[in-house]
Amino acid sequence: QFSWNIMLSILSQSGHLDRAEKFFTGMPRRDVASWTAMLVAYAKSNRIDRAKLLFDQMPERNTVSWNAMICAFARSGDFERALGLFRAMDLEGARPDRVTFVAILDACGQSLAMELGMWIHAELLAAGFQGEITISTALVEMYGRLGKIEDARRAFDRATGIGGAGGDAVLWAAMLAAYAINHSPSQAREFFENTPPRLRSSVSWTTMVTAYARAGDLHAARQLFDKIPRKN
RNA sequence: CUUAUUGAAUCG
Questions:
Q1: Is the CB of A170 under 7 A from strand B?
Q2: How far apart are CA A22 and CA A8, in angstroms?
Q3: ipTM over 0.85
């Protein structure tokens, strides 16, 4: 069973939707993973409608299947349906996990659904997902997009811990982006300078450079660009 | 840490 599923995911990841489809229908046995893999294959080819059809036809659904479908909607920009599915999970007794929450927080941020976002935030605290770094990053990103920079910062501070130097490069880049979106480049720059080099990535650099460029300060952009270490 | 789903910028 494992090997069939592996074969199926190889086919879909290499973009052979038609072959994946044939393989899927020809499989001697199909478990939840097989159905979900096929669903994702459709979604990646932008056949969201087909994906949803498969989702509805699945003999059983687990959290991963729900996540896959929610992510598919979110990726296609259909945040309404993504959020709708999230609500429907409860009714079918599927429990959201950290992947669900990250996807939903992202959808909230992109659709500027502040009310719901804050509600979700409370939900995940209650569910005990507080400490997950991907969750923290998603919170920072969402609040940043919503213009709630203080809330973004609060989530960030909790994630970086006592010394304030915890977390990873993704978290720090997300916080930087939150500043860059909501404040002047110099404000963002201050945060950038206070970022431990270990937690700076090429993403931090490009975020900072484009912040200057967007503000029209091409000189500062160029100057910073020239300071980027070779490896980045 | 390889059977399915998830976190950051730019450009393509």
A1: yes
A2: 10
A3: no
